[in-house]
Write the structure tokens for this entry.
Amino acid sequence: MSTLMTESDILRAVEIWFTEEKIYVLLSDDREIAVPLKWFPRLSNATEKQRNNWRFIGKGIGIHWEDIDEDLSVKGLLK
């Protein structure tokens, strides 16, 4: 038996925000995850302006920060 994933089955980031110590991601299934910034040195060492200069990639399956050359995937954040 095979299970085909549809576009709506894929978890996506729909919003992100920061505190001094964490990155928060709101997912398409309404879950909210928080991850320590210290897990990601580039983000941890970035300025507030650099952190806030992000864009979704792959329709929200990932997040990219051009200024610091950092990419995070929703799948990776959930591991």
